[in-house]
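Reader question, answered in our methods column.
A reader sent in the components of a multi-part assembly and asked whether the whole thing could be modeled at once rather than chain by chain. We filled in our standard form and ran it. Here is what they sent:
COMPLEX SIZE: two components
ENTRIES:
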Amino acid sequence: MTIDICLSPALYSFYDTDPQTTVVIVDIFRASTTICAAMDAGAGAIIPVQSIEEAEAYKAKGLLAGAERNVARCDFADFGNSPYEYTADRVQGKEIAFTTTNGTQALKVAEDAETIIIGAFTNLKVVADYCVRKNQNVMVLCAGWNNKVNLEDTLFGGALTEIFLSNSDFTLASDAGRIALSLWQEAKADIKSYLTNSEHIHRLMAHHLEKDIDFCLNINTSEALPIYDKKTQKLMNYNALS
Amino acid sequence: MTIDICLSPALYSFYDTDPQTTVVIVDIFRASTTICAAMDAGAGAIIPVQSIEEAEAYKAKGLLAGAERNVARCDFADFGNSPYEYTADRVQGKEIAFTTTNGTQALKVAEDAETIIIGAFTNLKVVADYCVRKNQNVMVLCAGWNNKVNLEDTLFGGALTEIFLSNSDFTLASDAGRIALSLWQEAKADIKSYLTNSEHIHRLMAHHLEKDIDFCLNINTSEALPIYDKKTQKLMNYNALS
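And here is the structure of the entire assembly that came back:
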Protein backbone atom coordinates (compact mmCIF):
# COMPACT_ATOMS: atom_id res chain seq x y z
CA MET A 1 0.00 0.00 0.00
CA THR A 2 1.10 3.58 -0.55
CA ILE A 3 0.44 6.80 1.30
CA ASP A 4 0.55 9.96 -0.75
CA ILE A 5 -0.19 13.59 -0.02
CA CYS A 6 -1.58 16.22 -2.33
CA LEU A 7 -0.75 19.66 -0.94
CA SER A 8 -3.47 21.56 -2.81
CA PRO A 9 -6.76 20.69 -4.52
CA ALA A 10 -5.29 22.26 -7.69
CA LEU A 11 -2.63 19.52 -7.81
CA TYR A 12 -4.98 16.57 -7.34
CA SER A 13 -5.32 15.74 -11.02
CA PHE A 14 -1.55 15.29 -11.38
CA TYR A 15 -1.41 12.47 -8.87
CA ASP A 16 -2.24 8.91 -9.83
CA THR A 17 -5.01 7.65 -7.63
CA ASP A 18 -6.23 4.17 -8.42
CA PRO A 19 -9.98 3.65 -8.09
CA GLN A 20 -9.69 1.94 -4.70
CA THR A 21 -7.73 4.75 -3.10
CA THR A 22 -9.09 6.15 0.14
CA VAL A 23 -8.95 9.93 -0.02
CA VAL A 24 -8.63 11.69 3.33
CA ILE A 25 -9.68 15.32 3.04
CA VAL A 26 -8.17 17.62 5.62
CA ASP A 27 -8.89 21.24 6.46
CA ILE A 28 -7.57 21.52 10.01
CA PHE A 29 -8.59 25.18 10.49
CA ARG A 30 -11.45 24.50 10.70
CA ALA A 31 -13.82 22.61 8.39
CA SER A 32 -12.68 19.05 8.96
CA THR A 33 -12.32 19.54 12.71
CA THR A 34 -15.78 21.12 12.83
CA ILE A 35 -17.37 18.29 10.85
CA CYS A 36 -15.94 15.80 13.36
CA ALA A 37 -17.20 17.92 16.26
CA ALA A 38 -20.68 18.08 14.78
CA MET A 39 -20.74 14.32 14.39
CA ASP A 40 -19.47 13.77 17.92
CA ALA A 41 -22.40 15.95 18.99
CA GLY A 42 -24.75 13.60 17.17
CA ALA A 43 -25.42 15.37 13.88
CA GLY A 44 -27.28 12.99 11.57
CA ALA A 45 -25.50 14.11 8.42
CA ILE A 46 -23.51 16.98 6.97
CA ILE A 47 -24.44 17.97 3.44
CA PRO A 48 -21.37 19.63 1.95
CA VAL A 49 -22.21 22.26 -0.67
CA GLN A 50 -19.97 24.44 -2.81
CA SER A 51 -21.83 27.72 -2.76
CA ILE A 52 -23.52 30.06 -0.34
CA GLU A 53 -26.63 29.88 -2.56
CA GLU A 54 -26.92 26.12 -2.16
CA ALA A 55 -26.64 26.41 1.61
CA GLU A 56 -29.33 29.11 1.59
CA ALA A 57 -31.58 26.88 -0.51
CA TYR A 58 -31.29 24.06 2.05
CA LYS A 59 -31.98 26.56 4.83
CA ALA A 60 -35.11 27.70 2.99
CA LYS A 61 -36.24 24.06 2.91
CA GLY A 62 -36.01 23.90 6.70
CA LEU A 63 -32.56 22.37 7.20
CA LEU A 64 -29.91 23.84 9.44
CA ALA A 65 -27.12 25.61 7.59
CA GLY A 66 -23.46 26.16 8.45
CA ALA A 67 -21.73 28.68 6.19
CA GLU A 68 -18.43 30.49 6.41
CA ARG A 69 -16.38 32.64 4.07
CA ASN A 70 -12.98 34.07 4.99
CA VAL A 71 -13.29 33.06 8.66
CA ALA A 72 -16.66 34.77 9.28
CA ARG A 73 -20.11 33.18 9.57
CA CYS A 74 -22.47 34.11 6.73
CA ASP A 75 -25.42 36.16 7.99
CA PHE A 76 -28.19 33.76 6.99
CA ALA A 77 -26.57 30.70 8.53
CA ASP A 78 -27.30 28.94 11.82
CA PHE A 79 -23.64 28.16 12.30
CA GLY A 80 -20.28 29.40 11.10
CA ASN A 81 -17.20 27.20 11.00
CA SER A 82 -16.38 26.95 14.71
CA PRO A 83 -16.44 23.47 16.25
CA TYR A 84 -17.85 25.02 19.44
CA GLU A 85 -21.08 26.04 17.72
CA TYR A 86 -22.17 22.52 16.83
CA THR A 87 -23.48 21.44 20.24
CA ALA A 88 -25.63 18.39 20.89
CA ASP A 89 -28.68 20.47 21.82
CA ARG A 90 -28.58 22.14 18.41
CA VAL A 91 -27.44 19.36 16.07
CA GLN A 92 -28.47 15.99 17.59
CA GLY A 93 -30.11 13.94 14.82
CA LYS A 94 -30.19 16.90 12.46
CA GLU A 95 -28.94 17.27 8.90
CA ILE A 96 -26.82 20.35 8.28
CA ALA A 97 -25.95 21.94 4.93
CA PHE A 98 -22.36 23.12 5.20
CA THR A 99 -20.12 25.32 3.09
CA THR A 100 -16.71 26.76 3.95
CA THR A 101 -13.98 28.70 2.15
CA ASN A 102 -11.82 25.72 1.31
CA GLY A 103 -12.96 22.47 2.89
CA THR A 104 -16.01 21.77 0.79
CA GLN A 105 -14.19 22.65 -2.44
CA ALA A 106 -11.63 19.88 -1.84
CA LEU A 107 -14.45 17.35 -1.75
CA LYS A 108 -15.41 18.35 -5.27
CA VAL A 109 -12.06 17.52 -6.88
CA ALA A 110 -11.92 14.11 -5.20
CA GLU A 111 -15.49 13.09 -5.94
CA ASP A 112 -14.50 10.23 -8.25
CA ALA A 113 -12.61 8.43 -5.51
CA GLU A 114 -14.28 5.27 -4.22
CA THR A 115 -13.94 6.25 -0.58
CA ILE A 116 -13.69 9.76 0.82
CA ILE A 117 -13.32 10.42 4.52
CA ILE A 118 -12.65 13.54 6.56
CA GLY A 119 -9.50 13.76 8.67
CA ALA A 120 -8.47 16.12 11.46
CA PHE A 121 -6.01 15.98 14.33
CA THR A 122 -9.00 15.31 16.57
CA ASN A 123 -9.85 12.05 14.79
CA LEU A 124 -6.30 11.12 13.68
CA LYS A 125 -6.30 7.67 15.25
CA VAL A 126 -9.81 6.90 14.02
CA VAL A 127 -8.75 7.74 10.45
CA ALA A 128 -5.50 5.77 10.72
CA ASP A 129 -7.25 2.70 12.13
CA TYR A 130 -9.86 2.79 9.38
CA CYS A 131 -7.25 3.09 6.62
CA VAL A 132 -5.10 0.29 8.03
CA ARG A 133 -8.15 -1.98 8.29
CA LYS A 134 -9.22 -1.09 4.77
CA ASN A 135 -5.73 -1.83 3.45
CA GLN A 136 -5.94 0.27 0.28
CA ASN A 137 -3.76 3.11 -0.96
CA VAL A 138 -4.33 6.38 0.87
CA MET A 139 -4.22 9.91 -0.52
CA VAL A 140 -4.33 12.81 1.91
CA LEU A 141 -5.86 15.77 0.13
CA CYS A 142 -5.02 19.07 1.82
CA ALA A 143 -7.71 21.72 1.40
CA GLY A 144 -5.16 24.52 1.67
CA TRP A 145 -6.24 28.15 1.36
CA ASN A 146 -7.62 29.22 -2.02
CA ASN A 147 -5.50 26.47 -3.57
CA LYS A 148 -2.33 27.70 -1.85
CA VAL A 149 -0.39 25.24 0.26
CA ASN A 150 -0.75 25.62 4.03
CA LEU A 151 1.25 24.38 6.96
CA GLU A 152 -1.38 22.85 9.21
CA ASP A 153 -2.98 20.55 6.62
CA THR A 154 0.48 19.45 5.50
CA LEU A 155 1.38 18.62 9.11
CA PHE A 156 -1.70 16.41 9.40
CA GLY A 157 -0.51 14.52 6.33
CA GLY A 158 2.83 14.01 8.06
CA ALA A 159 1.18 12.78 11.25
CA LEU A 160 -0.85 10.20 9.32
CA THR A 161 2.21 9.17 7.31
CA GLU A 162 4.20 8.60 10.49
CA ILE A 163 1.54 6.24 11.84
CA PHE A 164 1.35 4.24 8.59
CA LEU A 165 5.11 3.92 8.16
CA SER A 166 5.58 2.81 11.77
CA ASN A 167 3.19 -0.08 11.94
CA SER A 168 2.02 -1.40 8.63
CA ASP A 169 2.78 -2.19 5.01
CA PHE A 170 2.53 1.35 3.72
CA THR A 171 5.29 3.08 1.75
CA LEU A 172 5.58 6.70 0.66
CA ALA A 173 4.42 7.33 -2.89
CA SER A 174 5.98 10.75 -3.49
CA ASP A 175 8.15 13.60 -2.27
CA ALA A 176 5.14 15.44 -0.86
CA GLY A 177 4.84 12.71 1.76
CA ARG A 178 8.50 13.11 2.66
CA ILE A 179 8.01 16.85 3.02
CA ALA A 180 4.98 16.41 5.27
CA LEU A 181 6.66 13.76 7.42
CA SER A 182 9.77 15.91 7.94
CA LEU A 183 7.67 18.87 9.01
CA TRP A 184 5.53 16.79 11.35
CA GLN A 185 8.54 15.28 13.05
CA GLU A 186 9.88 18.76 13.69
CA ALA A 187 6.51 20.14 14.82
CA LYS A 188 4.93 17.39 16.84
CA ALA A 189 6.50 18.21 20.21
CA ASP A 190 4.67 21.54 20.19
CA ILE A 191 2.39 21.97 17.21
CA LYS A 192 0.93 25.27 18.30
CA SER A 193 4.33 26.93 18.69
CA TYR A 194 5.40 25.52 15.34
CA LEU A 195 2.35 27.08 13.72
CA THR A 196 2.75 30.46 15.46
CA ASN A 197 3.69 32.31 12.30
CA SER A 198 1.54 30.37 9.87
CA GLU A 199 -0.90 32.28 7.69
CA HIS A 200 -4.17 30.92 8.96
CA ILE A 201 -3.28 31.16 12.64
CA HIS A 202 -2.87 34.89 12.00
CA ARG A 203 -6.27 35.10 10.33
CA LEU A 204 -7.95 33.25 13.20
CA MET A 205 -6.17 35.30 15.87
CA ALA A 206 -7.32 38.47 14.11
CA HIS A 207 -10.86 37.19 14.65
CA HIS A 208 -10.14 36.33 18.33
CA LEU A 209 -10.49 32.62 17.68
CA GLU A 210 -7.63 31.30 19.80
CA LYS A 211 -9.93 28.77 21.47
CA ASP A 212 -10.83 27.39 18.04
CA ILE A 213 -7.13 27.04 17.27
CA ASP A 214 -6.61 25.07 20.47
CA PHE A 215 -9.61 22.87 19.73
CA CYS A 216 -8.35 22.09 16.22
CA LEU A 217 -4.92 21.07 17.52
CA ASN A 218 -6.22 18.51 20.01
CA ILE A 219 -5.17 15.03 19.01
CA ASN A 220 -7.44 12.00 19.24
CA THR A 221 -10.31 13.64 21.07
CA SER A 222 -12.96 12.66 18.50
CA GLU A 223 -14.56 9.31 17.74
CA ALA A 224 -16.09 10.53 14.50
CA LEU A 225 -15.28 9.06 11.11
CA PRO A 226 -17.06 11.24 8.57
CA ILE A 227 -17.44 9.29 5.35
CA TYR A 228 -18.91 10.64 2.13
CA ASP A 229 -21.90 8.75 0.82
CA LYS A 230 -21.84 9.27 -2.92
CA LYS A 231 -25.44 8.24 -3.48
CA THR A 232 -26.92 10.74 -1.07
CA GLN A 233 -24.01 13.21 -1.31
CA LYS A 234 -23.93 13.46 2.46
CA LEU A 235 -21.23 12.99 5.04
CA MET A 236 -22.27 10.36 7.58
CA ASN A 237 -20.51 9.20 10.73
CA TYR A 238 -19.22 5.74 9.80
CA ASN A 239 -18.59 4.93 13.44
CA ALA A 240 -22.19 5.73 14.33
CA LEU A 241 -23.49 3.68 11.37
CA SER A 242 -21.46 0.54 12.01
CA MET B 1 10.02 43.03 0.40
CA THR B 2 8.56 39.54 0.49
CA ILE B 3 9.92 36.16 -0.45
CA ASP B 4 7.38 33.59 -1.55
CA ILE B 5 7.63 30.06 -2.91
CA CYS B 6 5.36 28.34 -5.36
CA LEU B 7 5.83 24.58 -5.07
CA SER B 8 4.47 23.67 -8.50
CA PRO B 9 3.92 25.48 -11.81
CA ALA B 10 0.24 24.46 -11.52
CA LEU B 11 -0.11 26.64 -8.40
CA TYR B 12 1.52 29.76 -9.81
CA SER B 13 -1.73 31.47 -10.82
CA PHE B 14 -3.02 31.32 -7.23
CA TYR B 15 -0.17 33.40 -5.86
CA ASP B 16 -0.22 37.17 -6.06
CA THR B 17 2.85 38.37 -7.87
CA ASP B 18 3.04 42.11 -8.39
CA PRO B 19 4.47 43.18 -11.75
CA GLN B 20 7.90 43.99 -10.30
CA THR B 21 8.37 40.57 -8.71
CA THR B 22 11.56 38.73 -9.58
CA VAL B 23 10.69 35.13 -10.36
CA VAL B 24 13.46 32.61 -9.68
CA ILE B 25 12.81 29.39 -11.58
CA VAL B 26 14.43 26.32 -10.08
CA ASP B 27 14.79 22.79 -11.40
CA ILE B 28 17.72 21.47 -9.40
CA PHE B 29 17.79 18.03 -11.10
CA ARG B 30 18.93 19.17 -13.61
CA ALA B 31 17.74 21.90 -15.94
CA SER B 32 18.57 24.98 -13.89
CA THR B 33 21.93 23.59 -12.82
CA THR B 34 22.72 22.66 -16.42
CA ILE B 35 21.79 26.11 -17.73
CA CYS B 36 24.21 27.65 -15.22
CA ALA B 37 26.92 25.18 -16.22
CA ALA B 38 26.46 25.98 -19.90
CA MET B 39 26.77 29.68 -19.17
CA ASP B 40 29.85 29.16 -17.02
CA ALA B 41 31.27 27.33 -20.05
CA GLY B 42 30.62 30.43 -22.14
CA ALA B 43 27.40 29.62 -23.96
CA GLY B 44 26.15 32.76 -25.68
CA ALA B 45 22.48 32.09 -25.00
CA ILE B 46 20.06 29.34 -24.12
CA ILE B 47 16.80 29.38 -26.05
CA PRO B 48 14.26 27.60 -23.86
CA VAL B 49 11.55 25.84 -25.85
CA GLN B 50 8.52 23.86 -24.74
CA SER B 51 8.49 21.04 -27.23
CA ILE B 52 10.82 18.54 -28.82
CA GLU B 53 9.60 19.77 -32.24
CA GLU B 54 10.73 23.33 -31.56
CA ALA B 55 14.17 22.12 -30.48
CA GLU B 56 14.40 20.01 -33.65
CA ALA B 57 13.44 23.03 -35.75
CA TYR B 58 16.28 25.08 -34.24
CA LYS B 59 18.67 22.19 -34.81
CA ALA B 60 17.58 22.07 -38.48
CA LYS B 61 18.45 25.76 -38.72
CA GLY B 62 22.00 25.00 -37.57
CA LEU B 63 21.81 25.73 -33.86
CA LEU B 64 22.93 23.34 -31.16
CA ALA B 65 20.09 21.58 -29.36
CA GLY B 66 19.79 20.22 -25.83
CA ALA B 67 16.74 18.03 -25.32
CA GLU B 68 15.71 15.67 -22.56
CA ARG B 69 12.57 13.77 -21.66
CA ASN B 70 12.24 11.59 -18.58
CA VAL B 71 15.96 11.77 -17.78
CA ALA B 72 17.19 10.59 -21.21
CA ARG B 73 18.70 12.65 -24.04
CA CYS B 74 16.49 12.82 -27.14
CA ASP B 75 18.14 11.11 -30.12
CA PHE B 76 18.37 14.10 -32.43
CA ALA B 77 19.93 16.39 -29.81
CA ASP B 78 23.56 17.45 -29.32
CA PHE B 79 23.14 17.42 -25.58
CA GLY B 80 20.84 15.95 -22.97
CA ASN B 81 20.31 17.51 -19.57
CA SER B 82 23.62 16.75 -17.87
CA PRO B 83 25.72 19.72 -16.77
CA TYR B 84 28.85 17.75 -17.74
CA GLU B 85 27.92 17.76 -21.42
CA TYR B 86 28.02 21.52 -21.84
CA THR B 87 31.80 21.99 -22.05
CA ALA B 88 33.53 25.15 -23.24
CA ASP B 89 34.89 23.48 -26.36
CA ARG B 90 31.35 22.65 -27.44
CA VAL B 91 29.32 25.65 -26.27
CA GLN B 92 31.63 28.70 -26.11
CA GLY B 93 29.84 31.60 -27.83
CA LYS B 94 27.09 29.33 -29.15
CA GLU B 95 23.33 29.57 -28.87
CA ILE B 96 21.59 26.41 -27.71
CA ALA B 97 17.92 25.52 -28.03
CA PHE B 98 16.97 23.68 -24.85
CA THR B 99 13.96 21.67 -23.73
CA THR B 100 13.58 19.48 -20.64
CA THR B 101 10.79 17.58 -18.95
CA ASN B 102 9.93 20.23 -16.39
CA GLY B 103 12.32 23.17 -16.35
CA THR B 104 11.32 24.86 -19.56
CA GLN B 105 7.62 24.43 -18.80
CA ALA B 106 7.95 26.49 -15.61
CA LEU B 107 9.25 29.41 -17.66
CA LYS B 108 6.01 29.42 -19.61
CA VAL B 109 3.71 30.00 -16.62
CA ALA B 110 5.88 32.87 -15.31
CA GLU B 111 6.34 34.63 -18.62
CA ASP B 112 4.39 37.72 -17.56
CA ALA B 113 6.78 38.49 -14.72
CA GLU B 114 9.04 41.51 -15.29
CA THR B 115 12.20 39.65 -14.34
CA ILE B 116 12.82 35.93 -14.59
CA ILE B 117 16.10 34.37 -13.54
CA ILE B 118 17.28 30.81 -13.15
CA GLY B 119 18.36 29.53 -9.74
CA ALA B 120 20.30 26.44 -8.67
CA PHE B 121 22.36 25.49 -5.66
CA THR B 122 25.43 26.15 -7.79
CA ASN B 123 24.53 29.84 -8.26
CA LEU B 124 22.68 30.35 -4.96
CA LYS B 125 24.78 33.29 -3.78
CA VAL B 126 24.72 34.92 -7.22
CA VAL B 127 20.91 34.75 -7.23
CA ALA B 128 20.62 36.00 -3.65
CA ASP B 129 22.99 38.93 -4.27
CA TYR B 130 21.09 39.92 -7.40
CA CYS B 131 17.70 39.82 -5.63
CA VAL B 132 18.95 41.79 -2.63
CA ARG B 133 20.44 44.45 -4.92
CA LYS B 134 17.25 44.59 -6.97
CA ASN B 135 15.18 44.99 -3.80
CA GLN B 136 11.88 43.76 -5.20
CA ASN B 137 9.61 40.95 -4.08
CA VAL B 138 10.90 37.49 -4.96
CA MET B 139 8.92 34.43 -5.99
CA VAL B 140 10.74 31.10 -6.21
CA LEU B 141 8.94 28.94 -8.75
CA CYS B 142 9.72 25.25 -8.32
CA ALA B 143 9.59 23.29 -11.56
CA GLY B 144 8.63 20.10 -9.73
CA TRP B 145 7.99 16.90 -11.67
CA ASN B 146 4.99 16.89 -14.01
CA ASN B 147 3.45 19.51 -11.73
CA LYS B 148 3.98 17.37 -8.64
CA VAL B 149 5.89 18.89 -5.73
CA ASN B 150 9.46 17.74 -5.29
CA LEU B 151 11.90 17.88 -2.43
CA GLU B 152 15.03 19.30 -4.06
CA ASP B 153 13.41 22.36 -5.62
CA THR B 154 11.61 23.07 -2.37
CA LEU B 155 14.93 22.86 -0.50
CA PHE B 156 16.44 25.44 -2.82
CA GLY B 157 13.54 27.76 -1.97
CA GLY B 158 14.35 27.25 1.70
CA ALA B 159 18.03 28.00 1.16
CA LEU B 160 17.24 31.26 -0.60
CA THR B 161 14.68 32.16 2.06
CA GLU B 162 17.23 31.63 4.81
CA ILE B 163 19.66 34.05 3.16
CA PHE B 164 17.01 36.74 2.68
CA LEU B 165 15.64 36.48 6.20
CA SER B 166 19.10 36.60 7.74
CA ASN B 167 20.46 39.73 6.16
CA SER B 168 17.88 41.95 4.56
CA ASP B 169 14.42 43.44 4.69
CA PHE B 170 12.59 40.41 3.34
CA THR B 171 9.67 38.74 5.08
CA LEU B 172 7.92 35.47 4.28
CA ALA B 173 4.76 35.88 2.21
CA SER B 174 3.14 32.49 2.76
CA ASP B 175 3.20 29.09 4.43
CA ALA B 176 5.03 27.55 1.49
CA GLY B 177 8.08 29.61 2.45
CA ARG B 178 7.85 28.36 6.03
CA ILE B 179 7.66 24.79 4.78
CA ALA B 180 10.70 25.22 2.55
CA LEU B 181 12.75 26.96 5.25
CA SER B 182 11.98 24.25 7.80
CA LEU B 183 13.05 21.54 5.38
CA TRP B 184 16.22 23.37 4.38
CA GLN B 185 17.28 23.88 7.98
CA GLU B 186 16.90 20.17 8.58
CA ALA B 187 18.64 19.18 5.35
CA LYS B 188 21.48 21.62 4.94
CA ALA B 189 24.08 19.79 7.02
CA ASP B 190 23.97 16.93 4.52
CA ILE B 191 21.71 17.61 1.57
CA LYS B 192 22.55 14.45 -0.32
CA SER B 193 21.69 12.18 2.59
CA TYR B 194 18.50 14.11 3.16
CA LEU B 195 17.51 13.53 -0.45
CA THR B 196 18.45 9.84 -0.45
CA ASN B 197 14.88 8.64 -0.71
CA SER B 198 13.52 11.42 -2.87
CA GLU B 199 11.79 10.52 -6.11
CA HIS B 200 14.13 12.13 -8.59
CA ILE B 201 17.33 10.88 -6.95
CA HIS B 202 15.94 7.40 -7.57
CA ARG B 203 15.27 8.18 -11.22
CA LEU B 204 18.76 9.57 -11.72
CA MET B 205 20.45 6.68 -9.91
CA ALA B 206 18.54 4.27 -12.12
CA HIS B 207 20.26 6.00 -15.05
CA HIS B 208 23.68 5.84 -13.32
CA LEU B 209 23.79 9.61 -12.94
CA GLU B 210 25.24 9.89 -9.45
CA LYS B 211 27.90 12.31 -10.66
CA ASP B 212 25.16 14.58 -11.97
CA ILE B 213 23.48 14.45 -8.57
CA ASP B 214 26.71 15.50 -6.89
CA PHE B 215 27.22 18.29 -9.40
CA CYS B 216 23.70 19.62 -8.83
CA LEU B 217 24.17 19.68 -5.05
CA ASN B 218 27.33 21.80 -5.13
CA ILE B 219 26.72 25.18 -3.55
CA ASN B 220 28.11 28.43 -4.94
CA THR B 221 30.34 26.93 -7.60
CA SER B 222 28.80 28.92 -10.47
CA GLU B 223 29.13 32.59 -11.39
CA ALA B 224 26.27 32.46 -13.87
CA LEU B 225 23.11 34.50 -13.54
CA PRO B 226 20.81 33.31 -16.33
CA ILE B 227 18.22 35.99 -16.99
CA TYR B 228 15.34 35.71 -19.44
CA ASP B 229 15.28 38.37 -22.13
CA LYS B 230 11.64 38.71 -23.05
CA LYS B 231 12.27 40.45 -26.35
CA THR B 232 14.54 37.77 -27.77
CA GLN B 233 13.05 34.94 -25.63
CA LYS B 234 16.55 33.83 -24.75
CA LEU B 235 18.32 33.21 -21.49
CA MET B 236 21.46 35.31 -21.29
CA ASN B 237 24.15 35.40 -18.62
CA TYR B 238 23.53 38.69 -16.81
CA ASN B 239 26.96 38.50 -15.17
CA ALA B 240 28.62 38.18 -18.55
CA LEU B 241 26.57 41.05 -19.98
CA SER B 242 27.18 43.53 -17.19
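What stands out: The first helix of chain B runs from residue 31 to 40. Chain B is about 40% helix and 20% strand.
Send us your own complexes using the same form.
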